[in-house]
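Risk register update: the risk that structure generation would not scale has been downgraded. Supporting records follow, first protein first.
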Amino acid sequence: MSDVLMDERATADVLKDKNIAGVGTVKPLAEPEVLRAAQEWLGGWYIVDHSACGNADLPATRGDTWGFVNGRAAWQEKNFVYGNGDVWADDFMSSSDHYAASNLPAGFDGVDSVVLGYIASHGVTSGSTFTMSSGGTGHGGCTVKSTQMSFGQNDLRYMFFSTCQSVRNVNPGAVWFRTAKGVRAIFGYHTNIVDSDAYGKYFFENWKKTGAKTTDSFLDASWRVSHDQSPVAAWFGPDMATAETSRDNEEYFQLDAISGRSIAWSWYDARTLDRGLQLSMAPIMTLQFGAPRGPEGAAELVAQLGSRQPVEIDETTLSGDNVCHRTRDGAVLIYNTRSGSIDLTFPAFSSPSIVDFSDDEAVTAATEYVRGREEAFRGLKVDVANTDVAVVASDVRHSMVASADESGNSTDPRVKHVTVVFRQTVDGIATIGTGGVIEVTLNGDREVCRVRSVLREVVSVARQDSAFDVAALQQRAEERALAEVLAQPYVNEGRVLKTEFGFFSADESIVQSTAEPSFRVLVEMQTGPFARIIEKIYPAQELAG
């Protein structure tokens, strides 16, 4: 590109925010001299304003991309972040995705000038082609297609698409084989996704935890935003075995190019269970949560949740709001100081065994496990008069894996782990959102290999004498959510996908002191060829008033 074209972006975020602070800490156990022979450059793009191309805006995309870039490890460097009209389709096309740019730290621009790329925008896959929205009509036009991309001929090794329908969970190689020219992995979504500014931030929060793998960090970031979508992590290699090894084991970003002849991918697939919690009338009440207790007693907690035999903590590392404990036998306990959540992973999580038992068997085994360890979960035992707190099996999540090559050879999809999600209930009303849960994961050997709890401890309940009609307020919530989405410019149509009622419980990274009965409504908006899921949360008392 000419100097004139580069000068058009002189006021973009790449220059205004190049000295932004708060890049976080080095990931525990890093070995710089082994893992980073050259600079790990990051590049980000976001598009809030899609009006130039006649599509609905995505307000959360700026925070999404900046959350990723600002969450990076201390050894990684930002090359650029471009927003809105400065996101050029040309920068993703194979003929113009790497070019000299003396105004940038790396000296080059384009998607292939960075090791890690992250974009938040609209996207859709049709047949064997992915189409992504760019920032405007100039510099290549409003869209760019996967058939025009060629990733990895220069520096790009990892590409993150925070868009809808970017990486299918049914042979993603059908779209991405032709694009893979050295890139090691592509991350995206099989489904439409909830509009959120948290994906990028959550990825690096997860990735910096002791022992975290890159695949799990991405899938779990999506899970922390919403349980109603399917994230996919797709890895390349010269053969399926190599691609599978990278998918299952890679923990640090690598700089070497890799052949794209084979692909191995992992994804989450969840379904909701019948909880039997149908309410016609619900009371007006507010839960008060206690402050998170300290991370004391880590060894005792690991023993309670594990074999009940004494364990020793071998290493403790601080990572942002997370305190990471590694035991001598290889288990890792993560304690979040903002919410009091715990995430315990046992060595058996890495077992190569495949799940061949039913979901009903998984629910039975997980239920027995929780019942036998209730004292270990803060939030199950409460000392509040006339208040019943329990947990109920709510969802089952499959961690799926598969692989294929360019010649058409493939493995059948397999279940690597099955996770049973239990929701906290207070007087028969369950939590909604991604908090208020206990998650018990089993491997193919039926061993509990991971336990995660985002329960908050109820210390008091404020009740009013009145109650409300749940069905009537649900209809009001859905009508309001749909009207708000349809009122946005360039929205062609919308439909309510799902409505949940309960105590809204926030993610593990959020300090939450109260909760009240609320409705969570998911609306799918259609805008031109693209779609997005919009999440609306309405307190029941607000709707009733």
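Supporting record for the second protein:
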Amino acid sequence: MTIFAINDVGQISGYYVDASGAFHGFVETQKQFHTIDVPGAAVTFATTINNFGVVAGEYFDAAGKQYGFVATPAGTQQRN
């Protein structure tokens, strides 16, 4: 597990690698752990989190092309 950011209310974002070697973004809020996987992504990193719990990060597709995303606490994701 790698932590990239901690906001002023103690929420944490980062990534972890599972037993199969897949990379997943995550956010931990109020001692609850939530995985962030962008649909279609081979790798997801949750690189920052603001004080409203909105996470921004990057992901890579199977071809290695890099993209960005924003995810809200409600689960809404915007990708580019």
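The two ends are 25 Å apart (CA to CA). On this basis the risk owner (M.S.) recommends closing the item.
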